[in-house]
Structure formats: C-alpha cells, structure tokens
User: Fold this.
Amino acid sequence: MEIKQLILIFVKITCVIIVLFIGMMAFYWRSDVSNQESYKQFLNTPLIIQQPSAITERPTGYRFKKHNVSDFYPEQYEAELTKKIYTIGDKIQFHAAKSYYSLHVSTTYYLIGRDTLKSGEVVEFEYYLSNGLPRAWETMDDYLKRKKVQEY
Assistant:
C-alpha cells in the first residue's frame, strides 16, 4: 500500500470515530417516573413554597418544558424571562415526574407542574429535582434532616 492510501484510510477511520463519539454524546432518553414511590409523594398535592422561586422562560436548553421553576434571586431578575415569582407561603403543585438520561449528564429527574400566569396564560413548567440543594418547598431544617437521613 502506498502512503497516500494509508493516510486516506486513517482519515476515514478517524472521521467514523468522531461521528460515533458525537452520536453517543447526543444520545438521550426520556421516561415517565410518576408511578415510582420516591416521586409520588410530590405529585397532585399542593406544596408550600419555603424558598423564593420563579417560573422563568428558557428559549433553549430545556429538557421537557419551555418554562422552569428555580430559585429566585432579585439580582438575576429579567422581566421578559421571569413569568411568575413565588414567595414563601405560596403553593405549587406538580402532576408528573420525568427522568432524562444522556451520556454527558447521566440521569436527572424533573417534576412537571402547571400554573396560571397573571396574563391568564396557563403554562407547564419543569422543576429540576436535585438531591444536593434545598427544594423550593423545604425549609433549611427540612433540607438538613433529609441530607442527614441520606448519609446513613
């Protein structure tokens, strides 16, 4: 074989490997986990907000819904993206739980809720269910108790 043929074969193999790698990284899987016991406790029951939170619109980068609920920090307030602000004592309710798996982030879990904005528009939103952070409906004491139980 000539050196040019070897280089051409090497380039083709490299291209195939790169395409396969990109394909693996783009692979994802979504599933409904609403029937699993660990998520049922959060569904179809009003939860009282203990951490200021907001429904914000995310034009890109969302997993299930265009809107999400996350912690609200006034210094991050962007009027055009923030659709509703929850204060301590407000209620929030979720109707579904979903999991999202991809090779680059592993498995993450989301609660799906629905609320009506001041404009009258009904929006569905996702809430990232993190084990490492206080949840919007947890006081700091509740969070510390949950973390302590998980350590054992």
Observations:
- The chain has one domain: 29-151.
- The chain is about 25% helix and 35% strand.
- The helical segments are 3-26, 37-40, 140-151.
